[in-house]
């Protein structure tokens, strides 16, 4: 088994105050003679941490994608406001002058003087994509927070198992913990 620190070892080092390499070695070696039950619990805890770490990474990636989507939506809205405020004198594509008739159509019938598209979309229709993007972002932020909390809980549980590995071996029943010969039981 490798004793090279992984992200899990780094997190456990932060919690336990032990160096990450020491945590990695302890988990690889089994520490102070762990019982089969402790080894099983450690294996299960490491697997759980791996699953929860993957879920957290996925939730973080989703949140980041939703942030980018909201930024794109906001930038489109800013561009729309900017371009609606412009009074072009000619088509930006071919430089054909915009006639007074087209400008009148734009004012009276809400038709773009350049491409003749309908400009009567309401402000709420224009805001719908941004609202949806904000809702997606709020949802993905909540999912990321939940995933991180679950991951941190798994790290604490694993750190508790690491602490069990560092504890001195417990004397078995009948052992004398002082190391001195047992006093004579006769009276």
SSE pattern, N- to C-terminal: HHHHH
Mean pLDDT across all amino acids:
85
Largest sheet: none
Count of spatially separate domains:
1
What is the CA-based Rg, rounded?
33 Å
Strand proportion, as a percent range, falls in: under 5%
The total of beta strands comes to 0
Low-confidence stretches: none
Number of continuous helical runs: 5
Question: What spatial form do the alpha-carbon principal axes imply?
Answer: rod-shaped
Helix content: 55-70%
| Protein structure class | mainly alpha
How far the N terminus sits from the C terminus, by CA atoms, comes to 54 Å
Region (Disordered): 164-187
Q: What's the SSE blueprint?
A:
Layout lengths: L6 H10 L3 H10 L6 H49 L15 H10 L13 H44 L21
Helix pairs in contact: 1-2, 1-5, 3-5
What does this structure look like?
This protein is mostly helical and 187 residues long. The chain has one domain. The chain has five helices and no strands. It is rod-shaped and about 105 Å long. The two termini are 54 Å apart.
Quick summary:
Residues 164-187 are annotated as: Disordered. The protein has 187 residues and is mostly helical.
What distinguishing features does this structure have?
single chain, 187 residues, mainly alpha, 5 helices, 66% helix
């Amino acid at each position: 088994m490798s004793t090279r620190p992984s992200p899990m070892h780094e997190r456990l080092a932060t919690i336990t105050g032990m160096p990450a390499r020491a945590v990695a070695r302890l988990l690889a070696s089994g520490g102070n003679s762990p019982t089969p039950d402790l080894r099983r619990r450690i294996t299960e805890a490491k697997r759980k941490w791996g699953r929860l770490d993957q879920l957290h990474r996925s939730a973080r990636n989703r949140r980041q994608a939703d942030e980018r989507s909201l930024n794109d939506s906001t930038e489109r809205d800013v561009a729309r406001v900017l371009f609606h405020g412009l009074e072009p004198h000619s088509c930006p594509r071919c430089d054909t002058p915009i006639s007074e008739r087209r400008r009148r159509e734009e004012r009276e019938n809400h038709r773009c003087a350049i491409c003749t598209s309908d400009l009567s979309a309401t402000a709420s229709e224009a805001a719908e994509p941004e609202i949806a993007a904000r809702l997606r972002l709020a949802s993905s932020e909540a999912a990321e927070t939940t995933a991180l909390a679950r991951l941190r809980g798994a790290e604490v549980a694993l750190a508790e198992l690491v602490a069990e590995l560092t504890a001195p071996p417990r004397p078995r029943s009948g052992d004398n913990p002082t190391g001195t010969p047992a006093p004579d039981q006769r009276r």
